[in-house]
Specification:
Length: about 200
């Protein structure tokens, strides 16, 4: 009986350690900050914009921006983030000319420019959607230190994508100014955005 209890306790401890390691790995990917995005040699990118033309790291200069990486099939994080960012901008009385919202798909195999355009404009017509090839998407992810990988039934068309769930704050000069975490308190998020816009 004692041996069975000891074995059971040992197994419980092992499973707890596995769970802690998994959570730690997830946190590393979800909250890892970018490695000096924008304009760093070897971190250039060029993606197709849903508003026409090509969008590069240089296009992030000129207007403060909120940049989020996600995908249109995302069941929770992406629609929540887009709804929140557009709401925060409206609550602060800011126009798209004062604060841009940019959505970059991490799922170019399924997300076409038309799909991304319809998706982001469902939240606000001014939201800029960006789509690239697999190679260009990887370059954009590298510029921001973003992680993503297929999950679930990866061999079917119904796979999910695990991805960094941060909103990046980019200053008018194209510099990285911080992040807003997924489900961060609205007061905190709005304060960061106000600071961003004021420079």
């Amino acid at each position: 009986m004692t041996t069975n209890n000891t074995l059971r306790n040992f197994r419980i401890v092992l499973w707890v350690l596995v769970a802690v390691a998994a959570i730690g790995a997830t946190a590393l990917y979800v909250f890892r900050p970018p490695q000096r995005p924008l304009g760093v040699t070897g971190q250039d990118f060029a993606l197709t914009s849903t508003q026409g033309g090509t969008f590069t790291q240089n296009d992030l200069r000129g207007t403060p921006s909120l940049v989020f990486f996600g995908y249109t099939f995302c069941p929770d994080v992406c629609p929540t983030t887009l709804a929140e960012t557009t709401a925060w901008r409206a609550q602060l009385g800011l126009s798209p000319e004062q604060l841009r919202i940019v959505f970059v798909t991490v799922d170019p195999e399924r997300d076409t420019p038309d799909m991304v355009k319809a998706y982001v404009e469902g939240f606000d017509p001014s939201v800029i959607g960006l789509v690239g090839s697999l190679e260009e998407t990887e370059k954009a992810k590298a510029a921001f230190g973003v992680f993503s990988e297929k999950a679930g039934d990866v061999d079917s068309e119904f796979y999910l994508v695990n991805h960094t769930a941060l909103t990046f704050l980019i200053g008018g000069d194209g510099s990285f100014e911080g992040t807003i975490a997924y489900e961060e308190a609205s007061d905190s998020a709005r304060a960061k955005i106000e600071k961003l816009v004021k420079g």
